[in-house]
Design goal:
- The protein has 291 residues and is α/β, with parallel strands linked by helices.
- The protein has twelve helices and eight strands.
- 46% of the residues lie in helices and 13% in strands.
- An eight-stranded parallel beta barrel has the order 1-2-3-4-5-6-7-8, surrounded by five helices.
- Strand 6, helix 7 and strand 7 form a beta-alpha-beta unit.
Length: 291
């Protein structure tokens, strides 16, 4: 399965009481598919505030996303956790709801060994029949899926891709050594173009919520051989890439991108504790990115 070059890790819209706003959920999907040109959507990933969503909320999100997408994009369900049995439970439930693939974050906090990581993913892969995308984000999880482990996992038939938030050296090692057809995606917006240059398939993005069309143009220019033009566009987009993650006080995602969407008139609400909304100073900074 090909998930395209630009996957958006979708925010979860909340109302004033921080319950999921299902009308806005569908509106955001339409906006990301039609206006921002996303090839696939990750539902209930980190950007979707998965740590604060209940299992019931996640499953309803998967069900609604599949129904509303109507085949216009691939739906990738975030079902990973630091508990293998729980990850299997959610993954099997998501599969029954018709999602196209699963995104499985590396187990966080308990920091398993490389063999533990391999066995964790192998057990989940053997419990379902749909494609699996690994998600390596050591800055959040406290553990790196080493290139050798990703390469080993790439030989399990339904583990078909990775979202890797490390440097291009690690991406290159994976691309060079992985099983044929295994897809590598960067998870760092500012590394989109460098990742493409070393052979990545594309990006799992947050910034594509607000500059998806521009990112699509940059990616297409590179793939069409217009490298200098792609580099010029990268330079134009870099302040937004960095700004959405490097607000004055390094506000954790998705608070900045949610505010950016609110500024655009897409009422996605705030964030659930322990995250907090952006301050007035941070709001001004985010607004300046699009001035």
């Amino acid at each position: 399965m090909d998930f395209g070059t630009m996957i958006t890790a979708m925010v979860t819209p909340f109302d004033d009481k921080l319950s999921i706003d299902w009308t806005q959920f569908e509106n955001v999907m339409d906006y990301l598919i039609e206006e921002q040109q996303s090839d696939s959507l990750v539902i209930c990933g980190t950007t979707g505030e998965s740590p604060t969503l209940t299992d019931e909320e996640k499953l309803e999100s998967f069900q609604r996303a599949v129904k509303h997408a109507r085949g216009r994009c691939k739906i990738i369900a975030g079902t990973g956790s630091y508990d293998t049995a729980h990850s299997i439970h959610l993954s099997q439930a998501a599969e029954k709801l018709g999602v196209d693939a699963l995104l499985l974050v590396a187990p966080y906090y308990n920091r398993p060994s490389q063999e533990g990581l391999y066995q964790h993913y192998k057990a989940i892969a053997e419990s379902v029949n749909i494609p699996i995308i690994l998600y390596n984000v050591p800055g959040r999880t406290g553990v790196n899926i080493d290139p050798e482990t990703t390469i080993r996992l790439s030989h399990i038939p339904n583990i078909v891709a990775t979202k890797d938030c490390t440097d291009t050296d690690q991406l290159t090692q994976i691309i060079t050594g992985a099983a044929p057809g295994f897809l590598v995606y960067s998870g760092d917006d500012s590394a989109t173009l460098p990742a493409l240059a070393v052979g990545a398939r594309g990006i799992v993005s947050v910034a594509s919520h607000v500059i998806g069309k521009e990112m699509r143009t940059m990616i297409d220019r590179y793939l069409q051989g217009e490298v200098k033009e792609a580099a010029r566009l990268h330079g134009q987009l870099l302040p937004v890439f960095r700004g959405l993650f490097l607000c004055p006080h390094r506000v954790p995602s998705p608070a900045p991108v949610k505010h950016a969407l609110n500024l655009k008139g897409l009422r996605v609400g705030g964030v659930r504790l322990p995250l907090v909304d952006v301050t007035e100073q941070e709001k001004q900074f985010i607004a300046s990115l699009f001035a």
